[in-house]
């Protein structure tokens, strides 16, 4: 068992992450539902760090975290540049 966010979780409890909900935190701003990549271009290291922390939850966390996260991020960064270059 463990205590998560003040809640006592008995051992053996299945814990899941709602990836969509995890991406809707206040840290992304009031227009969180809008596709606005510029939200990452802010001169605020603390905020970007918090956004990145929430974003990484799409790859899950802990012992079942995605093993391909680094590859996936590299591919996505490459695709954006390739598409913008055309
Ligand atoms: C945007 C792309 C991707 C997303 C959002 C993603 C997301 C995830 C998530 C949420 C899990 C955990 C599933 C679970 O808990 O049952 C997972 C597991 C895994 N992913 Fe990914 N993935 C992506 C791309 C990739 C790529 C490109 C690779 C390989 C190169 C990869 C390899 C794996 C593997 C091997 C696991 C199993 C890890 C384990 O349980 O030991 N993923 N992925």
Automatic annotation (TrEMBL):
- Matching PROSITE patterns: CYTOCHROME_P450
Kindly list the cofactors needed.
heme
User: Which UniProt keyword terms apply here?
Assistant: Heme, Iron, Metal-binding, Monooxygenase, Oxidoreductase
Nucleotidyltransferase found in the keyword field: no
Tree of life domain: Eukaryota
Question: Is-annotated flag, keyword Glycoprotein?
Answer: no
Q: State the Pfam families in the record.
A: p450
Instruction: List the Gene Ontology MF annotations in alphabetical order.
Output: heme binding; iron ion binding; monooxygenase activity; oxidoreductase activity, acting on paired donors, with incorporation or reduction of molecular oxygen
User: Which InterPro entries does this UniProt record tie to the protein?
Assistant: Cyt_P450, Cyt_P450_CS, Cyt_P450_sf, Cytochrome_P450_monoxygenase
Q: What family does this chain come from, according to its entry?
A: Belongs to the cytochrome P450 family.
Q: What is this protein called?
A: Cytochrome P450
């Amino acid at each position: 068992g463990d205590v998560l966010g003040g809640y006592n979780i008995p051992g053996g409890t299945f814990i899941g992450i709602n990836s969509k909900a995890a991406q809707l935190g206040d840290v992304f701003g009031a227009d969180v539902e809008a596709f606005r990549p510029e939200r990452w271009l802010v001169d605020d290291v603390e905020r970007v760090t918090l956004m990145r922390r929430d974003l990484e939850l799409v790859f899950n966390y802990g012992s079942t975290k995605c093993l391909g996260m680094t590859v996936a991020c590299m591919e996505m960064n490459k695709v954006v540049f390739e598409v913008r270059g055309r």
